[in-house]
Amino acid sequence: MRQYALVSKFKRHSISLKEKKLAFRSTQQLTNLFDSKPIIVLEEMQKVLKSASRATVFRYLFKVNYRRSYNYNGRYYTKHELSRYDWHGIFSYKGIHFSRDGNLVATVSRLVCESSSGKTQRELQELLQVRVQTSLAAMVHDKKLARAKVASHFIYLHPDLEIREAQLKKRHEMIEKRRFAIEVVTDAVVIQVLLILIRHPGSRAGDVARRLKGHSPPITMQHVRVVFDRYNLDDVGEKGGPSRR
Hints:
This protein is mainly alpha-helical and 245 residues long. The chain is built from eleven helices and seven strands. Strands 1-3-2 form a three-stranded antiparallel beta sheet. It has a two-stranded antiparallel ribbon with strand order 4-5.
């Protein structure tokens, strides 16, 4: 009888502790945590919710407007605010990337479908800073995107035929302009691009163009792209050797 009383008392005590924890948990605690830092991880949310389990954290997260990183296996979380994202709908913090679309597949689809000339795999990887080959292959297989080969490069396109044809027309126009640009890229431009790569190893074409912004005479992204294509600079890894990708 005494043993039964002790067990009952222990159970009441456990229930009381659980109720206290629940009383101290709220969605506002998570909101405050998101507001206090650019990015957070699951362990921080568990701590602020009084040692909550993963399942409990996700129940509270359901009420919060957030995004998970599309790299690092979604380990990082950030508050979903449209003002955080750049022109392409991307928010980056110390190499951790988030999309306003919520995941990589949705982001790739939007970037391809919104583009007036479609996108190559390389162009998408420069924008998103992650590999997209697997996602693209799956989307083409599922007919969520179309693909066409233009000037030895695969271009990923809108699944709608009419929009796709308009994108291809624009892509052909871009190629013609680039052919003209090849003729006007001088040795001085090549030297400036190579100097940036020496000072900042591993830089992509977009990084180089940003670093050369304001240069006189102007060096555009198109000029940089021509230099990268001419010398196969996309195949140079971060340490100056061939990339293994």
